[in-house]
Design goal:
Helix Hairpins, five-stranded antiparallel β-sheet, OB fold (Dihydrolipoamide Acetyltransferase, E2P), binds 2-(butylsulfanyl)adenosine
Length: 670
């Protein structure tokens, strides 16, 4: 393939269409007709043109698949029809009741049911206008959802433009489906998070939902989300049968469940045999499901059946029980966290549950152990639902060994042997030694983690080795590491040494907010760190803030304020910060608001309900641009932003001759 140059808009559109065809060959048919290398060259060409001509970017551009565009928060929009949830059933009897109820309400027994997989992901509503994907909303509160269009566009199995077939493409169609993450991708994602010292996702559902709400579509693209469509808003305008719905969607090129995963059933027996078949193959599926969904097949009947609460009457979920296994507890060990909290962990006789071998399960805290009376050598039932962290459900007391002793929390920290104290008013136990090696390791991992100093290649394992070798005992030691030291470590070669040293160097230029996070001050998470960074602008000023000054920062509470003051009263902490700075760590001051922005020093008043922003979001946007907000209109007010059904503030603004702005005008000024 030859390198191409895009000369004009026509060349650009040709290339967009050509790449869409290649995507189809690759993702839909799994039969690419060009090499990955050639495809990348074309994409690069496309991106170069788009960078120079941002106004010409086509809404279907394949570059959107790799998440090039950036979102800033999410706007909210209304769904065409509400997105409801399903009522759950757990037993054959409950299912029987559902069928009986349907027979009664429809006044007939000749009713067909469509059975489908209940995907364990997060619901999405995708709007196509004249065949083009124009909007994707999360379920939100059921009536309005978050606009995650740019994120959804990274899902490669989802067409940006509906395929035309014999069927006419509707002017407007809102497709409903489930966004999910495949099990293998989920596993890799969590492994990487663990290495980076980040919290792992409890299950693929959380990972999918969390990924969909990331602000940077480029990051979303890395999560390789997938989607399966199963419904349409106002379905009765498009199809007459739920079973046919799948084929209807498929003809437009939309991803649907595999043919063997939906079925037409005549009665309870048919439904149960479908459920059994699916439950047996559940483990082999590449994604998680948590049951099946049973829907009345006749779409016309859906409306007449109505709904109760938030669930329609035409469908129910039939949930599978979480997968369980029996095993024994070989030991109960203790894990020490960053703040010294002791977490008991059950070391199990390895056993296979829900697709993986389980050898450990968290026991959470002493209360949980006492409530379930869990003892070492006990035979226990363990359970793994959608969650990756398995639980001990209960003890089989009939198998309890004689002399099995009640578990007691150690009086001394198993790592540093210091006293352990029961945290007042909490179920937690904490190691009292601030210099505990266990805590220290967790703090170092936290320091280097992605949402703090973001030092790539410095995950749990590497940090552990560095600590064991005595090279690192406090954060500043990381910035003293050199080639010679790293070459002594097993498995470290020229390339990995360079990678690590490069990322350490890169991390020196961190944002002030991340630097505050990295300090690991108790009760200061990323949101508080942002607030502190924006308020104090530099570390010297932050160190000197009093409790009163801290509490006055909107969003900082008493507990966090006390903890911040306490942290900076400790000379060791001040010395360590000094050392980090002297070694070249230079937290970047938060950007000054642009003085030349239209909003700078202007006073805004908001009235009425806004469609595209929450009030807080609008206020934040104003403040970020140097403007101020006030709750009442006066002659000092510069602008009144007017939503629908405005109150008396609107009248007052008119009376005083103050400029009013519609949401559109406001957005344009942003
Ligand atoms: S139908 C009124 N079909 O389950 C309900 N939902 O608990 C319309 N889900 O929010 C949804 N697989 O996110 C339907 N085959 C399927 C589904 C499914 C998964 C999810 C969906 C919904 C939740 C309800």
């Amino acid at each position: 393939m030859t390198h191409r140059k895009i000369k004009d808009q026509k060349d650009y559109i040709d290339l967009v269409n050509e790449l869409i065809e290649h995507d189809k060959h690759y993702y839909k048919e799994a039969k690419p007709i060009i090499s990955d290398y050639d495809y990348d060259l074309l994409i690069k060409e496309l991106q170069a043109f788009e960078k120079k001509n941002p106004t010409l970017i086509h809404p279907n551009s394949p570059s959107l698949r790799i998440g090039e565009a950036l979102t800033k928060g999410f706007k909210h929009f209304s769904h065409l029809t509400p997105m409801m949830s399903l009522a759950n059933t757990y037993s054959k009897d409950e299912l029987k009741d559902f069928i009986k109820r349907i027979y009664k309400l429809l006044e007939k027994e000749d009713v067909k049911f469509c059975t489908e997989l209940k995907m364990d992901g997060t619901a999405i509503s995708i709007r196509y206008e004249k065949g083009h994907l124009t909007q994707a909303l999360t379920r939100g509160n059921g009536k309005t959802g978050d606009d995650v269009t740019l994120n959804i566009k990274t899902i490669k199995t989802l067409p940006l433009k509906l395929h035309s077939s014999e069927k006419n493409i509707p002017d407007l169609i809102e497709v409903r489906g489930e966004v999910f993450i495949h099990k293998n991708i989920f596993k890799k994602l969590n492994e990487k998070r663990e290495e980076d010292g980040l919290d792992v996702f409890a299950n693929p559902r959380n990972a999918a939902a969390g990924s969909l709400k990331l602000l940077d579509p480029k990051e979303v693209a890395k999560r390789h989300l997938d989607v399966i469509c199963y419904s349409i808003a106002n379905a009765e305008n498009f199809v007459s049968s739920q079973f046919e719905m799948h084929n209807y969607l498929k003809e437009f090129g939309l991803p649907i469940s595999s043919q063997k995963h939906f079925n037409l059933c005549k009665n309870l027996d048919d439904i149960l045999s479908f459920a059994n078949k699916i439950e047996k193959t559940r483990e082999k599926l590449s994604f998680e499901i948590d049951g099946i969904v049973i829907k009345v097949d006749d779409i016309k009947a859906h409306k007449s059946l109505g709904f109760t609460g938030k669930s329609p009457r035409y469908a129910v979920a039939y949930k599978f029980a979480a997968e369980q296994a029996i095993t024994t507890i070989k030991d109960i060990t203790i894990q020490i966290g960053r703040t010294g909290i002791l977490t008991p962990v059950a070391e199990l006789e390895p056993t296979f549950v829900a697709g993986s071998t389980i050898s450990r399960a968290t026991l959470h805290n002493l209360d949980e152990i006492q409530r379930k009376d869990i003892r070492i050598t006990d035979t226990v039932i363990i359970e793994k639902g959608g969650d990756v962290i398995p639980k001990v459900v209960s003890v089989d007391f009939s198998k309890r060994k004689k002399g099995a002793k009640k578990f007691e929390m150690p009086k001394k920290c198993p790592i540093c042997l210091f006293d352990v104290e029961n945290v007042k008013g909490e179920v937690a136990y904490r190691c009292t030694n601030l210099n505990c090696k266990g805590q220290n390791l967790r703090r170092l991992i936290y320091f280097a983690a992605k949402n703090a100093m973001d030092i790539e290649h410095l995950g749990i394992k590497v940090m552990q080795t560095l600590v064991e070798r005595g090279f690192v005992s406090k954060p500043s030691d990381i910035y003293l590491l050199n080639e010679e030291m790293l070459s002594e470590l097993e498995g470290f070669k020229e390339k990995s040494i360079k990678n690590l040293l490069d990322s350490i160097k890169k991390s020196k230029k961190c944002t002030f907010s991340r630097f505050i996070m990295a300090l690991g001050i108790k009760y200061v998470g990323s949101e508080s760190a942002d607030l502190l960074a924006n308020f104090s602008k530099d570390i010297k000023k932050l160190q000197k803030l009093t409790t009163e000054e801290l509490i006055n920062i909107e969003g900082i509470g008493d507990i966090a304020a006390d903890s911040i003051v306490e942290y900076f009263e400790d000379q060791n902490n001040l010395d360590e910060i000094e050392k980090l700075l002297s070694l070249g760590v230079s937290p970047q001051k938060p950007k000054e608001t642009k003085k030349d922005h239209l909003f700078f020093s202007k006073i805004f008043v908001l009235t009425g309900s806004l469609e595209h922003f929450t009030r807080d979001e609008a206020k934040k946007l104003i403040k970020e641009r140097g403007g101020k907000t006030s709750s009442s209109v006066s002659k000092n007010t510069d602008y009144v932003l007017v939503g629908s059904e405005p109150g008396s503030k609107f009248e007052k603004a008119k009376k005083l001759g103050i400029k009013t702005l519609t949401e559109e005008e406001f957005s344009a000024m942003l």
